[in-house]
Amino acid sequence: MRIINKQKLIETVRQCCIEGATLLPEDVLQAMKNAEAEEQSALGKSFLSQCIENAVIARNESMPICQDTGFAVFFIEIGQEVLLDEGTWDEVVNEGVRQGYTDGYLRKSIVRDPLFDRKNTRDNTPAVIHYSFVEGDKVRIVFAPKGGGSENMSAIKMLKVSEGRQGIVDFVVNSVINAGGNPCPPTIVGVGIGGTFEKCAFLAKKALLRKVGEPNSDERYAELEREILEKINASGVGPQGLGGNTTALAVHIEHHPCHIASLPCAVNLNCHAARHVEKEI
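Above: the chain's sequence. Below: its structure in token form.
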């Protein structure tokens, strides 16, 4: 059994928060460069160029890529041979978030109650944490700060089984078109298919973590990703909703078995600042 020191976990989470806000992953940056080269709209090309320049400045100056440094969302894999020496996982992760958002001078955006007491918690806690347990003695932490603009454009639909593939395509494409410029396109489109209502939404969020453009390992779903992306980029929404042929950089689908009477589908969009960072303890 391996014991993980509480302070080690706090510091790792703290670093994730700061790096995640300031460093755009290389796969996302390269996708932006590819999109700039292929964009046909002069205005769209100019916007993509500015996004790339902004990401470089953020990296060089250690400044946030976007003023909305997001809800702190974590995907944490805990090895079955790992124990925390003190405190609970939630307590320790949230302390890391508290320190990271404070020390990194990152915007705190979380209110303590969604309806009746919308006062800022002043430290961006509590985080949203998804745990899974795996073999081994390591802890893998993926931090994906999620801005409000793109998150607000999420959608979920419990489709009729008879709607099938075409129903999925229409729902995802229309969701992106209806979002327009609100999620700050070009977006990465996360799609969850199957499972239950909440599992489907989780899959759509998790799909955003895949390297940009990396296809689903199942060729049937990979082909579906290509079809949906083509239709989205033919919509004309374009960068920042100002017109063009780059509305999305990628469509990523994750799927799960479901009930015989169900066909749930969820869409979760990530803006062009598709931030995420991964660390292992």
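The first strand starts at residue 2 and ends at 4.
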